[in-house]
Amino acid sequence: MTATSAPVTLGVGLRSGVPAAALDHAVDAALALAGLAVARVAAIATLDRRARLVEPVATRRGWPLVLFAPELLAGVEVPHPSVRVAAAAGVPSVAEAAALRAAGRGAVLLLPKRVLGHVTVAIAQSATG
Predict the structure, then answer these.
(1) Total domain count, the chain
(2) pTM of the entire predicted model
(3) Which tens digit of pLDDT belongs to each residue from 1-44?
(4) CA 56 to chain centre
(5) Which of 20, 48, 63, 73 keeps 20 to 30 A from 103, CA to CA?
């Protein structure tokens, strides 16, 4: 498998009440920004308390949903931590941290977090991908 065809993991952060259509749009926009095909997505990851919002999109697209408790994301080193996100979510990063953690040890960000409407998306690829 080459780096140009290796699976990627999406990390998403969103506020309560964001509709599935907004998440769908943000995911598609992030993939387009990164120049990645939808077929490369191996999973979508987020905070456990956002499962209800992300699950319909993951199910419709056939992607596994990976959920993390805040304490599992708190220790992930990210390039763009946010004081605002830390105050709201209890962790300095959701999208980047979830993408990196779900993609596994040594993962790299292909797309650092992008705020797309009311959704933040980051894309990571595993080191073995």
Answers:
(1) 1
(2) 0.93
(3) 445 678 999 999 999 999 999 999 999 999 999 999 999 999 99
(4) 15
(5) 20
* Residue 2 within a domain: no
Q: Per the domain annotation, does 32 fall within a domain?
A: yes
CA 3 to CA 65: how far, in whole Å? 23
Nearest CA among 63, 30, 66 for reference residue 51:
66
Q: What is the C-alpha to C-alpha distance for residues 11 and 100, in angstroms, rounded to an integer? A: 8
Whether 43 maps to a domain, the answer reads yes
Range of the domain at 24: 8-125
Which CATH number does the domain housing residue 75 bear? 3.30.420.180
HEC readout, the chain: CCCCCCCEEEEEEECCCCCHHHHHHHHHHHHHHHCCCHHHEEEEEEEHHHHHHHHHHHHHHCCCEEEECHHHHHCCCCCCCCHHHHHHHCCCCCHHHHHHHHHCCCCEEEEEEEEECCEEEEEEECCCC
**Beta strands at 41-47 and 65-68: parallel, antiparallel or unpaired:** parallel
